[in-house]
Amino acid sequence: MGDWAVQPGSGIRFEWGLAGAGRLAAEATCLVVVDVLSFSTAVSVAVETGIRVLPFWLPASPATTAERASEKAAAVYARQSGARLAVARHAVTPDSPWSISPAHLRRARFVARLVLPSPSGAAIAAAAPPGVRVVAACLRNITAVGNWLTAHGYGTPEHPVDVIAAGERWPDGSLRPALEDLLGAGALISELHHQGAGGLSAEAAAAKAAYEGTADLTRAIAASASGRELAATGFVEDVAIATEEDTCTLVPVRDSDGAFAPG
């Protein structure tokens, strides 16, 4: 009997989080990370400015010894990669102006290489097997990503595309499905479907329906738990940037060096 969890026979598949991505990766040819607030949006902004972005997994709440060790490992990885390390949103300084905040990245001075840690989108991208194409998608580049995927022959049962909604984390570290990532994934699936890719798994069709049934995407994302949290902590501009639909024509693709660069 087949492994039905990998949604076999579909050209467009949909799953949640690091575990879902890992389950689909065994049969994946291309994996698309959707982390609207904010990893994939931050990647799109950085790549637009010419920055090569290296993803790195970092726990959501650095409280344990192992989690603090991950922060140190990120710093070591950045030094070894000849890159600067993005810090937490509230930790930016004139010397370290880069964070996962798209607004910060727009204002920060140029750096050729940037390690961008996060517990969700970056973790998924960093963990994907070397032989799998990894693309960062957000609402800013949906059409560009859809065009790139279909132009490269992805979105068929023989060469499926796995769309992964990154989600967020609950305080205990478990996955919190996030509305903004469901809608972002659904937007890409809808675009791929309109371009003739398919067929859709039942999971992908449900994500597509969620997006197409949302009358006001900007309002929905601003009112989501993630959007309200960012606004309440002073980062409402990040939410605004994340909902700049189809303003970016670049497609960030992970290269052999492990960095996202224009595809």
Automatic annotation (TrEMBL):
It catalyses: (2R)-O-phospho-3-sulfolactate + H2O = (2R)-3-sulfolactate + phosphate. Pfam families: 2-ph_phosp. Keywords: Hydrolase, Magnesium. Its EC number is 3.1.3.71. Its cofactor is Mg(2+). The keyword Ribosomal protein does not apply. The keyword Magnesium applies. Gene3D superfamilies: ComB-like (3.90.1560.10). Coiled coil: none annotated. Belongs to the ComB family. This is Probable 2-phosphosulfolactate phosphatase. It comes from Streptomyces coacervatus. The lineage of its organism: Bacteria, Bacillati, Actinomycetota, Actinomycetes, Kitasatosporales.
